[in-house]
Amino acid sequence: MIEVTGLSKRYGDVTAVHGMTFACAPGTVTGFLGPNGAGKSTTMRMICGMTPPTTGTATVAGTEYRKIANPARHVGALLDPSAQHGGRTGRETLALTARLIGVPPRRADAMLDMVGLAGKAARRPVRAYSLGMRQRLGIAQALLGDPSVLILDEPANGLDPEGIRWMRTLLRGFADKGGTVLLSSHLLREVEAVADRFVVVARGRVVAQGTAADLLAGRTGTFVRGLDPAALGAALAAAGLPATPDASGAFTVAADAARVGRAAAAAGAVLVELRPAGDGLEDLFLSLTADREPVA
Ligand SMILES: Nc1ncnc2c1ncn2[C@@H]1O[C@H](COP(=O)(O)OP(=O)(O)OP(=O)(O)O)[C@@H](O)[C@H]1O
């Protein structure tokens, strides 16, 4: 469980994070979404005890990160893949961490294998790694202590489509076994397929949170296009359905698809398109985060 309560961070006159409150439950993946500069990294750094909050609290399993004994055994974090020492090989990096956190060295090899960095890749210095390889190494490092919580800042950066799919499967499996995952991204499509819940942030504040269904509740409607726009417009009007035409002659109707379809059928209007209105998660995310100016 991750609990963030009234968390704020000011840097001089910039408020990077402003009164954020949210929680991530075991068994779930939470997508932490927001445009560049929204305050995601700062929040994750505060949860992981790397940046002190100005006000508010962040706890993992009820305890502040800094007060957890051997935190890597409870919380796996990937906050900055470029922070790894470039002169060490992937294997040395993990072996060193394994020793520091008290896990057997063979677990380092198992993790390298799991993230696809076994063999030759493990023996190359990290400075020769691509960003995607660094992300994989960072994920291996985060998992090394067999934690129950994962906090990953933009882990999909630098991963190819196969790598992104691999990561999704890994995170889903982790959560399905009872783990808690907080996963940030500035791109909805990177987290949409794996997240159970979303915390959407903009300008340092939480602007929406919940499941996709929660976020989209009340934003329903039906998009409909007829072969003859005038005939369809007349059919919708005759059925008393409120319809807004667009420039192409299609309509967004404040009614479900069945009612719209029936109205068209009753008037003999031929439909060429009938679907939920285009107010999907992506549109919602863009409209919630449209203004990218940070709060001063
Ligand atoms: N150490 C710092 N000193 C001053 N300002 C900072 C510092 N760290 C972050 N900020 C500012 O805080 C705001 C939030 O930054 P943060 O990196 O948390 O956003 P983000 O959502 O993670 O964005 P990105 O996706 O670009 O990393 C930005 O305006 C940033 O410039």
TrEMBL record:
Membrane-traversing stretches: none
Classification via Gene3D superfamilies: P-loop containing nucleotide triphosphate hydrolases (3.40.50.300)
Entry's Gene Ontology molecular function annotations: ATP binding; ATP hydrolysis activity
Domain of life: Bacteria
Coiled coil: none
A Pfam family per the record: ABC_tran
Domain (ABC transporter): residue spans on this chain: 2-228
InterPro entries (alphabetical): AAA+_ATPase (IPR003593), ABC_transporter-like_ATP-bd (IPR003439), ABC_transporter-like_CS (IPR017871), P-loop_NTPase (IPR027417)
Swiss-Prot/TrEMBL keywords: ATP-binding, Nucleotide-binding, Transport
Family under the similarity heading: Belongs to the ABC transporter superfamily.
Protein name, as recorded: ATP-binding cassette domain-containing protein
Organism field: Actinomadura rayongensis
